[in-house]
Amino acid sequence: MGITAVILAGGAGRRMGGADKGLVPLAGRALISHVIDCIEPQVDELIISARLNRGADRSADRSADRRGYLDFGYPVIFDDVNDATQAPAGPLAGVAAGLAAAREALVLFAACDMPALPQDLVSRLNAALDSAQAEIAVAVTGERVHPVVMLARRVERVDQHLRAYMASGGRRADGWYAELAVVRVDFGPASTAFANINTPDDLATHEARLAGRMP
After folding, report:
1. 3-class SS at 108?
2. 3-state class of 113 per DSSP?
3. N or C, fewer C-beta in 10 Å, the chain?
4. CATH 1.10.418.60 fits 3-210, yes or no
5. Domain ranges of the chain
């Protein structure tokens, strides 16, 4: 089956001073470009789910919100639940938008602030999904679950369950798929491949790691 990747870049970036995290520089390049480097060779299609300016009217031109991400050469979508007329729905809004926009039968989701994702991420999630005949495969490292790093089947049941969960006020990814057929894929308890960059300190740490100053 073909695979679409959706990079979730719609977060508010509060711990990064409100910055659009995907566009924050890391080693001289936008953070999201490192994520693209990890993911793009593993999939058939790549989409960026970007943040909509919540002060904008839904009917307004959204080109300014897209501009920074269009430069990477991939389709850019907005999560329609995280618009200016509704309460924020968090990353699940990007997941819903990604499921709607994807063309392939399987959809990989990953956050824009994970610049060191493993090169076998997709193959291992896909193998587990197929073996378990599950609807969603989620990455874990030991006991830690990475709820938005997942491979999902783009089927009506998964999409409808997600939209019903959000309509009921649900916002947690693990809360959404708790009632679906889920398989967890352990990438090893010591793995740092799923480290998030949430703060300026996290950014400095990863810069040092890339420069070889840290293991």
Report:
1. strand
2. coil
3. C
4. no
5. 3-210
